Amino acid sequence: MKRILSLALVGVALCGYWVSAQDAGDVIDAAAKAMGTGSLQSIQYSGTGSVFMVGQNFTPESPWPRFKVVKYNTGVRYDTPAFREELVRVDDENPARGGGAGGFIAATGQGGMRPILGEQTQVRQATPRTETGQLQIWMTPHGFLKAAAANKATAGNTGGRRTLSFTALGKYTVTGTLNDQNLVERVETRVDNTMLGDMLMEAVYSGYKNFGGVQFPTRIVERQGGFPTLDITVSDVRPNGAATLEIPANPPAGPAETAAKSERLGDGAWVITAGLNSVLVEFTDYLVVVEALGNDARSHAVMAEVKRLVPNKPIRYLVNTHAHYDHSGGVRAFAAEGVTIVTHEVNKPFLEKVLSLPHQINPDSLAKSKRRAVVEGFRDKRVFTDAMNTLELHHIRGNLHHEGLLMAYLPKQKVVIQADAFHPRPGAKPYPTPPQFTVNFYENIQRLKLDVSQVLHIHGGTDSIATVAKAGGRS
Prior knowledge:
By secondary structure, the chain is an alpha+beta fold. The chain has helices at residues 2-35, 131-138, 141-150, 296-309, 325-328, 331-336, 348-354, 365-369, 436-448, 465-472; strands at residues 42-52, 66-77, 82-90, 120-126, 154-158, 161-168, 172-178, 184-193, 197-206, 209-211, 214-216, 219-224, 227-239, 261-266, 269-274, 276-282, 287-290, 315-319, 340-344, 375-378, 381-385, 390-395, 406-410, 415-418, 454-457.
């Protein structure tokens, strides 16, 4: 009797799967017909709106900083899959808070800190040869329907809305929601993010109109981690107009293997460069590292160089200057080794939260270690000192790049270590107007009466920083 019941339950389950698969086919067909997807091989669309810089917010829990998009053009090919997005942005926020202005461009004197001087072009290009490229194409409205048909999607119902879901690349669940006109109104999935772990990525489509027999949204809102990253009002759509979109002959090169090199700053202090800079400070019984940028790989390279330089002492503390993702992406690797994270009190709750988030899509060092991270915060000043060395940590008051921004000071070596408060301009290139980050950094050095002979910039940089250091110190 039990065997008959088991077989009956299996039969019911298989029947349910078959019905779901059959329903999915019907749902896809109805949506493709309503949206004109069957005849669509490529599409171009353009408009204006806003773009937001992920991980560059002024406070750890506030939305990503906004930039105005004055020109937006995207081309997608579905026959030979490819995606290219180009936008021109300007900084019209007043006052401009947070980061995301992009790297300094020596030829134009632009970028490097907010506000941007004039317009700046940003390009995002994807091919199906990369995982992110495939997901980007599949998350467009028509791309989703094509991918759902090709990947044996299943049908469902959420909140009275029909849904389609399929598994992409063996690890990404992509789900689309349809409205009562059979139009795709939302597509979402979860992707690995160095800081946010299994991060929700979503696109919301509304205001559909007919463009040459193809239904396409006139508003596109993309979100990551719950905050908008793109908000575009579409003004022009050209079905089958992206046939000339170029497909790169070879897949983009993956990140080069991270290696670290070091240079002595003075007694018991080194700058360790692995793309960007971290600083090692040696004390009698322990070590302190300032800044863990990037990701796990970079942090492991830094730790390997630390072990080579001072093999018999443990890293006890890691100093995090602020919670922007480029400056905090490597923190988890240090936490996995039992290193205590020290940061401004504004950053402490956020770091504690992200250090506990699940990383199941692409498990990192901390996820594998199952260790509980330890974060310590302070308000204005913290000092590490013994007979061998002294390291002072100071809050940079009134800085608009980040509310919890720190600088580190080595009084014995007369070195200030800073991140994003000052971006050196090689030669005679102008600074932004108003140059609030640079002036604020200068004023804080004066306020603290620091005796400075050298400023070390976490992002790199050379001679032009010496002038600011002299002006800001007692020398």
